[in-house]
Write a structure and sequence with these properties.
By secondary structure, the chain is mainly α. It is about 60% helix and about 0% strand. The chain has 7 helices and no strands.
Length: about 110
């Protein structure tokens, strides 16, 4: 099952894969699809931790992954997105991608 990422774990992952992580969100989407289907709440929480990542690539991957999850779990994704501070430019970018299929989302 998914667990909360700690800053040290994210840093170690980046170091292992050569600086900025371009693999993690894609591994999450492709490598553990069954986990996402069985535990969408945990997947959403894990992805949400990366909504303000320094890498634009990671933020876009997170937004796209949440968008994919929202196709089957609209309410779960919507509830999470309503907690985000969209005054932050990076979070707003991720939010925009994640809410693509959530019509006229109002929190």
């Amino acid at each position: 099952m998914f667990t909360k990422l700690e800053d040290e774990e994210i840093a170690a992952f980046r170091e292992e894969f050569g600086g900025k992580t371009k693999i993690f969100p894609l591994q999450l989407k492709v490598g553990v699809v069954k986990e996402v289907l069985d535990h969408p709440e945990a997947a959403i929480q894990l992805l949400s931790q990366l909504r303000n990542d320094e890498s634009e690539y990671v933020r876009k991957s997170v937004g796209n992954a949440l968008c994919d999850i929202s196709k089957k779990h609209k309410d779960l994704v919507k509830n999470e997105l309503c907690t985000w501070d969209t005054t932050n430019k990076q979070i707003k970018q991720t939010h925009k991608l994640a809410s693509k299929f959530l019509q006229k989302m109002k929190c």
